[in-house]
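I had to read the description of the data format several times before I understood it. Each protein is reduced to its one-letter sequence and a matching series of backbone shape codes. The format is easy to grasp once an entry is in front of the reader. For illustration, here is how one protein appears when written out as sequence plus structure tokens:
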Amino acid sequence: PMDTPGITVNPIKEMNGQAMFAEIFFENVRVPVTNRLGDEGEGWNVTKVALAHERSSIAEVTSLEHNLEGLKDLAKSRSRNGRLAIEDPMIRRRTAKIETTIEAMRLTGLRLLTKQLRGEPLGADTSVNKLLRARLEIEIGKLGCEIEGSFGALTKKSPHAVERGRWQKTMLSWPAYVIGGGTPNIQKNVIAERLLGLPHDG
């Protein structure tokens, strides 16, 4: 438990104002054997299983779909170059790319879920969804702010912020989504070595 004597948690405030990450220090912490996960010496295997489930990003598909619909609604309400943003070919192309990538994530997630229902372990294939999600989170926030124009720089504290600064917050939140669970470079190495059978990096 996090209230075990010797554990110190220092929250790290992110640029979006939240604190989803923290520094955790262990000083002479003793953990009862009843709290151990897995067998002794198998800590890394337990961690890999947890990371695989996190990287599958199955639950995040719904959130991404919600943000996509929000982007479309935003594009239908904001003007860009003398017309609605939704009528701009560049906006339509980028929105379509986001939508197809989310669908690819959803289908990959269903395959991963099928493996779990069959009792099969999740493996390196979960890194595909993790990598796609990282790219999507960045692109969604970036596109939302671009559609808003100068209003995209306003935080929720401003009375002029569009949707209480929703897209600005999304834009500033990308490090948490991208770094958490392993950076894109880590995911690329996992995919290259364990899925494609390419030589080990370094």
